[in-house]
Amino acid sequence: MAKPRPPLPRLPGDPFRPERPRFGAQLRVEVQQAIRLRHYSERTGKAYWGWIVRFILYCGKRHPSELGAREITHFLTSLATEHQVSASTQNQALSALLFLYRHVLVRDLDAFEGLVRARRPRPLPVVLSAREVAALLAELNGVPKRMATLLYGSGLRLLECATLRIQDLDFETQQICVRDGKGGKDRITLLPASLHGSLRQHLDAVREQHGRDLAEGAGHVALPTAIAEKYKSASRSWRWQWVFPATRIHSHRESGLRRRHHFHETALQRAVRAAAVRAEIPKKASCHTLRHSFATHLLAAGTDIRSIQKLLGHKDLRTTMIYTHVLIQGRLAIESPADRLPTVSPRPDPKRSRPPPDPGDTLQPPAVHPASRSEVDSEKPSLRRAMRVARQIPPLRYTAPQPRGAEIYGTVEY
Q1: Which of 112, 136, 169 is the last residue of a domain?
Q2: Backbone phi, then psi, for 152, in 5-degree steps?
Q3: In which element (H, E) is residue 309 found?
Q4: Could you report the per-residue pLDDT of 47-100, keeping only the tens digit for each?
Q5: What is the mean pLDDT of residues 286-315?
Q6: Which of 334, 358, 393 is the last residue of a domain?
Q7: Helix (H) or strand (E) holding 251
Q8: Residues 303-340 pLDDT 10s
Q9: CA 364, 369, 370, 373 torsion-angle sign
Q10: In sequence order, what are the beta bridge partners of 250?
């Protein structure tokens, strides 16, 4: 049996080995209060706190009140040079530290004017063709297939699909209401008609499962904001349940209620990656790739870009304009000049390919006398003997084709 590997040593100043500093408990409470006061998402709060801890460890566990713009610049430089993080990761770390000093420690903003944000590249999104999407969905089954079909058919983000509730689906109008999406915005998007039958069967099974949970004293679900305080029985009502619930029940730490979480997003990510491998798709296919394919295929089909912007929930039209690279296809196709070149056969090369000799042509290459060839082969390769053999070869005579005026100058013999 192999011995377990010893733990890696903790390097001093390593921003990717977070530890809880001694003063971290009080500082974390202050950061959480500032996050909730501004209604930031829970994921944003976790990301910000992670960067704050890494920054404190990088500076030798000193309190952030003793640090300033100089230490922040050194920390961001180490991220870019030593750890080679992306521009978006570097900007996220800078935003977390600026939030700490502006809203938690309430420091003067003039001291941070010299901080520079990294320039983010704008790569084109990876888009699957309709055949590749069909092959990807064919390799899925059950809940992951329904969720992946919604990602492609409705243009949902990963968490928007995972946190759908029963009241968000409208089968009559074929619409999905996305609540509290990115940036805290709500929007309306499409509900694919081809998914109605499968979704109704799925919801019937979810309702039976919810009934069993209620009989066992469970059946609660997490609610946004203070709805649970205002409506005591809302957490057990059918319309607030998840469309894609988890398979297990857990007990909430604060309230002690037995809840059922939604289908975890990482399970869907693993299923989509495995399906892309089985379908042999030579692209970086992910859950967000299906959202890119939704917008691209709508634009290629002739849908106006303003409607696509509303379906995707983009605040700025320039974000949606990234999908205009599909204009090189479809009805607005731009034809390559290489496709308009005429077909021309190559000219024969006289050095490489010679036509076969015409048997009726009087000009034939001189033939070697058989007797002289045997003598040449028998002699040793010396210059004198070769000249001696050449004198014994009888002269050959042949008639060349007569050019114009040959009747005046006569026949030329060689």
Answers
A1: 112
A2: -80, -40
A3: helix 305-312
A4: 999 999 999 999 998 899 888 888 998 999 999 888 889 899 999 999 999 999
A5: 92
A6: 334
A7: strand 250-251
A8: 999 999 999 999 889 889 888 876 555 545 667 788 78
A9: negative
A10: 259
Q: Locate the DSSP E strands across 156-236.
A: 169-170, 175-178, 187-190
**Closest by CA position to 326, among listed 122, 192, 134, 128:** 128
Share of the chain above pLDDT 70, in %: 76
- Same structural domain for residues 169 and 265? yes
Contact 313, 186 (CB under 8 A): no
Domain hosting 246: range is 122-222+235-251+258-334
258: exposed, middle or buried (Cβ count in 10 Å: 0-12, 13-18, 19+): middle
Confidence check: pLDDT of 219 > 70 = yes
CA distance 289 to 283: 10
Instruction: Enumerate the active-site residues.
Output: 157, 182, 288, 291, 314, 323
Token digits for 309? 């912007």
Residue 307 falls inside a structural domain: yes
Q: Is residue 405 part of a domain?
A: no
Q: How many domains is the chain built from?
A: 2
Q: Are residues 127 and 154 in the same domain?
A: yes
What confidence score (pLDDT) does residue 8 get? 39
What is the rounded CA–CA span in Å between residue 312 and residue 292? 10
Q: Look at residue 272 and tell me if it is in a domain.
A: yes
pTM for this entry: 0.70
Residue 152: per-residue pLDDT: 96
pLDDT for 221 equals 93
Distance CA(404)–CA(413), nearest Å, equals: 16
Taking the C-alpha atoms of residue 213 and residue 258, their distance in angstroms, rounded to an integer, is 9
Q: What is the pLDDT of residues 247-283, one digit of tens each?
A: 999 998 888 889 999 999 999 999 999 999 999 999 9
* DSSP symbol at 400: P
Q: Which has the minimum average pLDDT: 210-224, 287-301, 394-408?
A: 394-408
Backbone angles phi, psi at 321, to 5 degrees: -65, -10
Q: Which of 254, 193, 249 is nearest to 228 (CA)?
A: 254
Quick one: pLDDT at residue 346?
81
Residue 350 covered by a domain: no
